[in-house]
Amino acid sequence: VQLVESGGGLVQPGGSLRLSCAASGFTFSGSYMYWVRQAPGKGLEWISVINTGTGIAYYADSVKGRFTISRDNAKNTLYLQLNSLKFEDTAVYYCTTASWGAPINWGQGTQVIVSS
Q1: Rounded CA gap, 56 and 46, in Å?
Q2: Cα–Cα distance between 68 and 114 in angstroms, integer?
Q3: What integer pLDDT is reported at residue 3 of this predicted model?
Q4: How far apart are CA 26 and CA 99, in angstroms?
Q5: What is the mean pLDDT of residues 92-111?
């Protein structure tokens, strides 16, 4: 299994970014995929989950209405659209595979810095 995140960067408050996660080595379509983040000096925070087969997704309250998870099964790619970014969204963002409600395989992460 390989997960490669990209798309992070420096953005001003209120700005937007789109993160991507290229997946390989497993059957992407029909799997559950997570986005998880870790802010500086803090623990891991689950952000969102999607069933790549149905497209049904759920979000943490901290990002609901601002972030959107999506996927392109033809490209084996997971996305996270980040809108209305806040300082507290600064973190390393990881995509993970999931099984029985737990993250299993992790990418290397992509850094998002929200700063003015």
Answers
A1: 16
A2: 18
A3: 97
A4: 13
A5: 93
Q: DSSP assignment, residue 12?
A: -
Angle at CA 56, nearest 5°, toward 14 and 80?
Answer: 30
**β partners of residue 63:** none
- Report which residue type is found at 79: Y
Report how far residue 70's alpha carbon sits from residue 25's, in angstroms, rounded to the nearest whole number. Answer: 19
Cβ atoms of 13 and 114 within 8 Å: the answer is yes
pLDDT digits (tens, 9 = 90+) for 29-59: 999 999 999 999 999 999 999 999 999 999 9
pLDDT of residue 101: 83
Q: How far apart are CA 47 and CA 40, in angstroms?
A: 16
Residue 36 is predicted with a pLDDT of 97
Give me the phi and psi of 44, to 5 degrees please.
-75, 140
Phi-psi region of 86 (alpha: psi -120 to 50; beta: other; left: phi over 0): beta
- In the numeric block, which tokens belong to residue 66? 């601002």
Beta strands 67-72 and 57-59: pairing type? unpaired
